[in-house]
Design a protein that fits this description.
Structural class: mainly alpha
Shape: elongated
Largest sheet: none
Radius of gyration: 22 Å
Number of helices: 11
Oligomer: single chain
Helix content: over 70%
Number of strands: 0
Distance between the termini: 65 Å
Low-confidence stretches: none
Mean pLDDT: 85
Order of helices and strands: HHHHHHHHHHH
Strand content: under 5%
Length: 244
């Protein structure tokens, strides 16, 4: 098994040793260990320092941690001075955390959940849930491999590579798409769960979805797919309570 494959598999356990002192640091060190083994022969004196640095404090979105693991391992291999590697390590935390939250937690996850809800309401049953698990985890695996490879190929230039990558572009439209889908899924699911209750016509459902995407554009800092979905659930419950 190659060092990259071993590092990829270890990335899925990066949160297993999470703690308040180092956050994901120990998990990062565990994932980076296979990539640093080459230093044992090329730079034995640097190997111990590199292993210690790889396990220091770090925190970002777990699905994009592979970007940092690959980039930091590449800098160690290239012989970049330790203080510069530490600065890169610190600089990667915020952007990878924010970008991962935007793409996955505020975009892909609620969008796929909404599609699953609509599919179940349409009669897909358990196959909708199985499809959700396959698609989401498939994207998770592909992103981890892409991030690890990108980090290893770019090293110190990883920030520029991330800016030019597909992630910022996908993140910019996934949020509004999730808002639209959640706005569509909530009333559709309500009609499925509460047959015979006043659920409105298809036009009303589409209207709620359109309102969701407009709010995402107008108030991006305040309105997320999760908040919009919870607001709709609350409004639906209030409607059922007030209307006999």
């Amino acid at each position: 098994m190659t060092a990259r494959i071993r590092a990829l598999l270890r990335l899925f356990a990066i949160q297993a040793s999470w703690n308040y002192e180092r956050m994901q640091g120990i998990g990062m060190g565990y994932a980076a260990a296979p990539l640093l083994e080459g230093l044992k022969t090329t730079a034995p004196g640097r190997y111990a320092e590199a292993v210690a640095r790889s396990a220091e404090y770090f925190n970002c979105h777990p699905y994009l941690a592979g970007v940092a693991v690959g980039a930091l391992a590449r800098t160690e291999e290239d012989g970049v001075p330790g203080p510069l590697i530490q600065r890169l390590r610190t600089a990667l935390c915020g952007p990878l955390g924010a970008l991962g939250d935007q793409v996955f937690w505020a975009g892909l996850l609620p969008a796929l959940m909404a599609l699953t809800m609509v599919a179940v309401a349409g009669g897909a049953g358990a196959w909708a849930v199985v499809s959700f698990l396959i698609v989401f985890n498939g994207v998770r695996l592909a992103t981890a491999w892409w991030g690890l490879r990108t980090g290893l190929e770019t090293g110190l230039q990883v920030a520029g590579a991330m800016q030019r990558s597909w992630l910022p572009r996908v993140g910019s439209w996934l949020g509004p798409a999730a808002g639209f889908l959640v706005g569509f899924a909530v009333p559709a699911s309500g009609g499925y769960l509460l047959r015979g209750a006043p659920t409105g016509a298809l036009a009303s459902t589409l209207g709620i979805a359109i309102v969701g995407i407009v709010l995402f554009h107008r108030l991006p800092a305040m309105v997320t797919a999760l908040r919009y979905g919870l607001a709709l659930v609350g409004a639906a419950l209030l409607w059922l309570w007030l209307v006999p």
